[in-house]
Write a sequence for this structure.
């Protein structure tokens, strides 16, 4: 899951990003609407968390841009105002959800996860394929009944491959969904992650390389 946080209170924005990353999400942060507009043009986000009161380009304008854009980004609007009229106005702009400040972080996470499930088809709670049993809720993986401890990035890559249901997933797609904007597109981090993931999953190999295209998880053992 890739999330964009747009909040001009730097400490709050960084705190939200840090907490969401701890939930295995890839998070980009912008502190004003102008830079957020550039990010939205460059990346396809599952969820955007927008402060309604932003400098330069306001949250309302960003909301309209996302709604009119080509992607299916879901919008969670943040605001210090809890008046009913403000919530109604925010939702009428096209926002999918509305959360007043201050808020409980656990509620923010739950709302982001709920919106992400509406952004793209959610993976089933448990995926079973090629001897793997993957519990997406508990973030646990078993191979032929053996528990396989994975890092958050390894787990994210594996789930992205499984979601493809046998289709090939490119390195670029994995970078976009499992890492944030600070990753160097020329890096070999996907290849290194794939090496450790394959080693941990054991033999026979589950993940196959498609030369010149990317990676896939075979459907049958």
């Amino acid at each position: 899951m890739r999330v964009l946080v747009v909040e001009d209170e730097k400490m709050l924005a960084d705190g939200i990003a840090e907490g969401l990353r701890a939930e295995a999400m890839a998070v980009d942060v912008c502190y004003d609407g102008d830079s957020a507009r550039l990010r939205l043009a460059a990346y396809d986000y599952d969820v955007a968390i927008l402060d309604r009161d932003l400098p330069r380009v306001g949250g309302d304008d960003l909301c309209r841009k996302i709604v009119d854009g080509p992607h299916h980004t879901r919008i969670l609007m943040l605001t210090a105002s809890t008046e009913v009229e403000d919530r109604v106005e925010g939702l009428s702009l096209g926002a999918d959800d509305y959360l007043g400040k201050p808020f409980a972080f656990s509620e923010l996470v739950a709302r982001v996860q709920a919106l992400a499930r509406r952004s793209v088809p959610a993976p089933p709670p448990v995926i079973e394929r090629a001897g793997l049993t993957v519990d997406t809720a508990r973030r646990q993986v078993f191979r032929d009944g053996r528990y396989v401890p994975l890092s958050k990035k390894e787990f994210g890559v594996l789930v992205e491959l499984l979601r493809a249901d046998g289709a090939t997933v490119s390195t670029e797609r994995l970078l976009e969904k499992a890492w944030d904007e600070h990753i160097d597109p020329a890096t070999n981090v996907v290849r290194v992650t794939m090496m450790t993931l394959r080693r941990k999953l054991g033999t026979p190999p589950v993940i196959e390389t498609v030369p010149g295209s990317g990676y896939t998880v075979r459907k049958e053992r």
